[in-house]
From TrEMBL:
Keywords: Membrane, Transmembrane, Transmembrane helix
Keyword Cytoplasm: no
Residue span(s) of domain GGDEF: 303-431
Catalysed reaction, written as an equation: 2 GTP = 3',3'-c-di-GMP + 2 diphosphate
Protein name: diguanylate cyclase
GO molecular function: diguanylate cyclase activity
Domain HAMP span(s) in chain numbering: 215-267
Broad class of enzyme this protein falls into: transferase
Gene Ontology biological-process entries: signal transduction
Cofactor: Mg(2+)
EC number of this enzyme: 2.7.7.65
One GO cellular component, as annotated: membrane
Segments passing through the bilayer: 21-44, 194-214
């Protein structure tokens, strides 16, 4: 069987062996998962590192300003807690750390989620706060918190101004850090969505290809199973499309060869069981089976059908006087003459001994009478010149006149035959 267009892809796939296709299926399933797993781990590790960096940046950036603001507020409220005798804070280091944080922010630059105006506002706030802090640095060297000169040197107004400017710088800087954090979170979400879609698309494509490869394996197996079931049910002409060059193709070829051999053997057995070995026409079982099938078909379509019941005249005399060989030659000759008179669509069978049946599909009673007359006349013309050849008598029964029951139809033809054999005028057939 030739493959149709729908099996072209399967034909190409079946050029590979089943083992090769299973290996490809495993590769399509495992390799994308392995690659995506490595990429996912790399992206997640990168996100964790970025998160740690973001947290550390927040600490390094905001802590100096927050610490400076805290110490200035303590100086204002508690006059640097003269009673604790603790060491004065190192304002110089804090200022340097803050300057370094702003340098880092300038290097990083702005992003869509963190406009340049935020950076500018924070820098301006720090520039406003820095002179007041610088004055603190100049007046407070390694000064102890309990030293009374701090109150003399700094006025409450200077402290308030320094606290205000530092607080404003801290708020702007916190806004920058928050914007960076928001941008980082959005980036992480985008990366995660990209990973999810990568998994979905990759697995979908892999599943599609796996389905195609599995189909190229399962389809021929299902075809084999269906063909074997049909063959087991007695259906003939069962064949499987031979595609590709794999193991299943070889099995399909062997199945087709087996099916052909089975059909030939079956036909030989049917022929042997349904054909008469002497005359070559159908035997009793074969002709009755054909009659039953034709009656069922003609009943469904409402078509007429006629039946001949034929008996050889003087056959017993030929057999008794000339021997059985002469009787066999007479049977062979009369069967051949009957076939010559019948049409290609008609069926002829040996009913038993010297009796024959002919089934004439789609034939009315009038048409059957004309055919029977020609047959009888043809046989009589030759047999009347040779005593070793028999003549025949014919009884006719037709549907729908005689009904559709097989036994009734045979009985009607047999009765007509009996009447024909006992008529004085033997040159006409009877119905």
């Amino acid at each position: 069987m030739k493959p149709d267009k729908g099996t072209t892809l399967e034909h190409h796939l079946r050029r590979l062996t089943v083992g090769q296709r299973i290996s490809i299926i495993l590769a399509l399933l495992l390799l994308p998962m392995a690659v995506l797993s490595v990429v996912s781990m790399s992206v997640l590790d990168g996100q964790e590192i970025d998160f740690q960096h973001s947290v550390q940046e927040s600490i390094d950036t905001l802590l100096p300003l927050t610490t400076l603001e805290h110490y200035l507020e303590r100086a204002q409220v508690d006059e640097l807690e003269a009673q604790t005798n603790t060491s004065a804070p190192n304002f110089t280091v804090l200022t340097q750390n803050i300057d370094r944080s702003f340098s880092t922010i300038e290097t990083t630059g702005s992003t869509p989620d963190m406009p340049e105006g935020l950076i500018t506002a924070a820098q301006r706030a720090w520039r406003d706060a820095r002179p007041a802090v610088q004055r603190l640095v100049e007046h407070i060297r390694p000064l102890h918190l309990g030293n009374d000169r701090l109150s003399d040197t700094l006025s409450r107004k200077d402290l308030q101004q320094a606290i205000h400017d530092v607080s404003r710088a801290r708020r702007h800087l916190a806004t920058i850090i928050k914007a960076r954090y928001t941008h980082a979170v959005a980036l992480r979400h985008s990366q995660l969505r990209w990973l999810v879609w990568s998994w979905v698309v990759t697995l979908s494509v892999a599943t599609l290809f796996i389905g195609l490869f599995l189909s190229s394996i399962l389809r021929p197996i299902k075809a084999l199973e269906s063909a074997a079931r049909r063959l087991g049910a007695g259906e003939t002409g069962v064949r499987i499309a031979v595609l590709g060059n794999d193991e299943l193709t070889s099995v399909s070829r062997h199945f087709n060869a087996m099916s052909e051999y089975w059909e030939a053997t079956r036909q030989a057995l049917l022929t042997e069981t349904s054909m008469d070995p002497l005359t070559g026409v159908l035997n009793r079982r074969g002709i009755l089976a054909v009659l039953e099938q034709e009656l069922a078909a003609h009943r469904r379509h409402g078509q007429p059908l006629s039946l001949f019941m034929m008996d050889l005249d003087r056959f017993k005399t030929i057999n008794d006087t000339l021997g059985h060989s002469a009787g066999d030659r007479a049977l062979l000759w009369v069967a051949e003459k009957m076939r010559e008179s019948l049409r290609g669509s008609d069926h002829l069978g040996r009913y038993g001994g010297d009796e024959f049946i002919a089934v004439l599909p789609a034939t009315t009673q009038e048409q059957a009478q004309a055919i029977a007359q020609r047959m009888r006349q043809s046989i009589h013309d030759t047999a009347n010149r040779d005593d070793a050849l028999p003549t025949i008598s014919i009884g006719i029964a037709s549907t729908p006149e005689m009904g559709w029951d097989m036994q009734t139809l045979i009985g009607g033809a047999d009765a007509a035959l009996y009447a024909s054999k006992h008529r004085p005028d033997k040159t006409s057939s009877s119905d």
